[in-house]
Amino acid sequence: MIKINMRFLKIIFALLLLPVSGNVYSTVQESDQDSIDKLNNHILPSIYLDGRRFDDNHIRREITFVNYVRDPERADIHIFMTDEPVGRGGRQFEISFIGRRMYDDLEYTITRTVDHNVTYDEIRDELNEVLKIGLGPFMMRTPLASRFSLGHDISDEDLMENYSVQDPWNNWVFQIYAGSFQLALESNRRDLNGRWGFFADRVTEEWKLRFRPYFNYYEVEIQQEDDDPVYSKRHRHGINSYVIKSLDQHWSSGIFSDYRTRNDRNIRSRFDVGPGIEYSLFPYSEATRKAITFVYRIGYTNVDYYEETIFQQTHEELVNQRLEASVRVFQPWGNIQAGLVGSHYFHDFSYRRAEFWGRLSIRIVDGLSLNFHADFEMIRDQLSLPAGDASLEDVLLEQRQLATDFEVSGSISLSYTFGSDFANIVNTRF
């Protein structure tokens, strides 16, 4: 009994003297290592990081006063993060700290917003600071509480400056992009494609505005042995714009307009404009975690076709309506995203379309995750189909749309991770 007590006293003595590090007992004699590991695992809370934007390696290297586990069931603290774009091109992160076992009465969320001009490294450091702050109340319940302190580097002058800052751009953000220009050459084939465009966005608590011209071009040339080369040129250009007004925490309204031209859909020009209204079952302030929304839109369409359609039309003016219901739930056990969309034209209700889409990810137990994806679309509104038969070349080169009644796609995936519960080690070699 005396020997056991002496070993325990040596461990406690080492704990009081050594600074916090990846393992606060790293210099204790190796003969006591088994007892040290057990005490280390008990004192240091275990956390599970749950968020696609977490840089796990960076966090483990910078925050060394906790244990990291790969299975949420083994965690004392489940850290769950979601994010969404905000005005001026930045992102807002919501990080929830969910206590379990001895911390089951602790649960709260910290919100942090980063500007659009910050680098990836700055975002990592910002999230690490949030994690350190959020872990503070948990660490106060451990024997290491006396080793922690809270500080800041904000002066009164800084605070006054921040409150008095005026935005010269009035929350407008502009982006010009020209990317994905690709050239592929083979002995009998040449491919060229590219996309470019422009964004002008303004997002405030009351308004959401967008003006976005975009251009997409694709060209292919195939050399045949005995015949002339086969050419295919496809384009998809347009302008997407909207003005959305927040009415309260559940309602919003807007005006939407779109212009597009697309030769592989027989659309020389198409202009759509119309109002819409949205109702959110939950307050918009909770939208990053759970949202059930209903959207109704009615619109006017003016369209010109390259070729006469199967309905003997080269120009049409149409009125249509669209109703959409969607649900999004992000929780530590997984997430659900699903939606149902229906639309039709008023001049003939048989010209309609319905679509269901769904995404489901479930953590079953002990590192086992099950993922589902499904899309089903019932199509009865292909008004732009050109008259006449499509050639084999047009079909293979995707220059012409084919008639169809439906489209279906889906997938199921299963992943299982097993082994050591802890994930403290960081090794980025190779």
Observed structural traits:
430 residues, alpha+beta, Rossmann fold, Porin, five-stranded mixed sheet
Distance between the termini: 49 Å
Named CATH topology of the largest domain: Porin
**Biggest sheet: strand arrangement:** 6-7-8-9-10-11-12-13-14-15-16-17
Coarse morphology: elongated
Helix content: 10-25%
Indicate the CATH class of the largest domain. Answer: Mainly Beta
Q: What would you say this structure looks like, in words?
A:
This protein has 430 residues and is α+β, with helices and mostly antiparallel strands. It folds into two domains: 2-144, Rossmann fold; 247-416, Porin. It contains six helices and 17 strands. The chain has helices at 2-17, 33-43, 56-62, 120-139, 156-164, 392-396; strands spanning 46-50, 67-68, 77-85, 91-99, 107-114, 172-185, 189-203, 207-222, 230-246, 251-262, 267-280, 290-305, 315-331, 334-345, 348-365, 368-379, 406-416. The strands form two sheets. The chain has a twelve-stranded antiparallel beta sheet with strand order 6-7-8-9-10-11-12-13-14-15-16-17, with no helix packed on it. A five-stranded mixed beta sheet has the order 2-1-3-4-5, with helices on one face. Strand 4 and strand 5 form a beta hairpin. The two termini are 49 Å apart.
